[in-house]
Amino acid sequence: MNDTSLLSELLSQIWFRFALVALFGFLTGLEFREYILLRSKERPEIPTISLGTSRTFTFIAILGYLLFILDPGYRLYLVGMAGLLLFFGLFYYHKLKTGQTGLLQPLIALIVYTYGVIISLQPPWFLILIFVTLVFTLSTWKKTHRFVENIDPREMPTLAKFLLLSGVILPLLPDTATTPYLPVTPFKIWLAVVVISSISYIGYILKKYLLKRQGYLITGLLGGLYSSTATTVVLARKSRGLAQADPSLNAGIISATGMMYLRLLILVAIMNSALLLQAAPPLLLLGLLSIGIAILVDKKAGNIPDTPPDLGHSNPLELGIALLFAVLFVLMLVITQQVISHFGKTGLDLLSLIVGFTDIDPFVLSVLSGHYQSMNDQQLIGAIIVAAGSNNLLKAVYAFSLGERKNIRSVSLFLLLLGLATIAYGLALPQFG
To answer: Among residues 197, 196, 179, 177, which one has the least CA distance to residue 187?
Structure first.
């Protein structure tokens, strides 16, 4: 009997499900007790009114499971829930009389009450997911509270509109070609916009709200997730006026470029997973190598700047930015198709070199999304790698021209050599296949 069948056999046993429910109820109670103790230390002026101990949560979980299995019609279970709601109502009324308005305790207790139903009707990973979510929420309450206090309310409508366009409009778009001039469907066009905006938004949120006080290395990593070129420009300008080269500043620029390679790999995995096996080795090697060098350079500095630079990013979920990217993406699709049709691989290589001196994302996504039957997988991946190398040449020029040359010379040379090596590899890749 293999491990999967053994787990299935155990989950079919009532005693095993009972043990899991009791265990997760107890662990939830322990985590909530720790949360209450930390809150009491942080705010001793507010009297703590606790719903109970870890044993209370254990018995609530057991009660929910027993009432669920004793009556298949759920009547006993619903009666038990009604009783808990009545008790929680009285408990909350007592809290309000003391000036406390938090609903967290009764809400978590109600979730614990559903553990028995979840383990009976859903796969075990779902109960584990809920438990992990509760633990994460309780253990990070200070960071969550700080995040909520600092978040810009103007970003919420932008996020809501983007979720509407991606979650409602995207599924409604046709996934069939509408014109012979575009080798991609309307669904794929907007999917590319959603993917690139989402990846950029993750870096934007992490940098703006969660990792604001980190050093240049982290700044470069998060900036590379958004735009390695823009990050290079900002950090290069930061080098002006320094008496001597700052290794941590150089590490930030190098790490941004390393993250660019990993970002491209993420795009390949999402937009055209058939190319992942060919794309993973070079992109992983170049990305991890650059980040490793950045870490070594950063260790020489040993300092974290008090005020990391503002990368000046606008919210990537702004509709204007998304629509502009969609237009550029469609334009690049048309250009790429025409170049391949008339000039083949030579034209694609030349186009890859040229677009590297612009924003390479529309070109990369056009290569991943289009259906170019005259090109094989190695040629398409080679074009993406060439564009990345060409973009490194642009960053080398930006760093050398915008930064303090005596301070930025070494990192400019690194970007130049890395760019040339990347281009050479991309041009030679089809021959390897």
So the answer is: 177
Specify the range with the lowest mean pLDDT, choosing from 104-113, 305-314, 380-389: 305-314
Q: How far apart are CA 290 and CA 253, in angstroms?
A: 10
Element (H, E) at 145: helix 141-150
Rg (CA), the chain: 27
Distance (Å, whole) CA 17 – CA 123: 11
Residue spans of the domains in the chain: they are 3-147, 154-432
DSSP annotation string for 199-238: HHHHHHHIIIIISTT--HHHHHHHHHHH-HHHHHHHHHHH
Q: Which residues contact 14 (CB under 8 A, 6 or more apart)?
A: 69
Joined tokens for residue 400: 């050398």
Cα separation, 93 vs 200, in Å, equals 45
- CA pair distance 262, 407, nearest whole angstrom: 27
pLDDT tens track for 57-71: 899 999 999 999 888
CA distance 72 to 62: 16
Categorise residue 309: left if φ over 0, alpha if ψ from -120 to 50, beta otherwise: beta
Check: CB of residue 233 under 8 Å from CB of residue 252.
no
Tell me the pLDDT tens digit for each residue of 398-427. 888 887 777 788 888 999 999 999 999 988
Q: Is the pLDDT of residue 45 over 60?
A: no
Instruction: Determine phi and psi for 107, rounding to 5 degrees.
Output: -65, -45
- Burial grade of 56 (CB within 10 A; 0-12, 13-18, 19 or more): middle
Q: What is the pLDDT, as a whole number, of residue 306?
A: 47
**What tokens does 298 get?**
């950063």
Q: How far is Cα 412 from Cα 397, in angstroms, rounded to an integer?
A: 7
pLDDT in tens, 141-195: 666 666 556 666 666 776 776 777 777 777 877 777 666 666 677 787 788 888 8
156: which 2 tokens? 């919420």
What is the pLDDT confidence band of residue 6, given thresholds at 50, 70 and 90? low
Q: Got the DSSP string for 346-403?
A: HHHHHHHHHHTTS--HHHHHHHHHS--TTS-HHHHHHHHHHHHHHHHHHHHHHHHHHS
What residue spans of 43-174 are helical by DSSP H? Answer: 54-70, 75-97, 104-113, 115-121, 124-139, 141-150, 155-164, 170-172
